[in-house]
Amino acid sequence: MPSSSTSLKIRSSANTPDVADKLALDYFGQVPVAGEAAIPFLVQRIETPNNETEWRVYKPVAVTAKCLICHGNPADQSPALRGKLKAIFPEDQALGLQNRRMAWRDPRHRGGSADLDSVS
Fold this sequence. Notes:
Blueprint: H1 19-29, E1 42-47, E2 53-58, E3 60-62, H2 65-71, H3 79-88, E4 102-104
């Protein structure tokens, strides 16, 4: 089963949420700060134009201090890291996140990137 990531603050236009994604993101946007009665996942049933059923599962994750190295305030980043992020993600909107707020990620993403680990 393929997986992808999306957010209301995207790094790349390839991850732009569609209408169904926006509904799920808006729903989770009402979820309180991490650690306070957050639901573990959301299942969404979508009827495609071909009359096929598509199931989507959304999982929220808490933003941690490690996430904020790349997703926090750009003013707190070193010039080398900011330059590298701008080179990789020129359309980056996934900035200014705050610790413990809910965000979304691809389950395969484990934090950090080999390309960015040496730049900070």
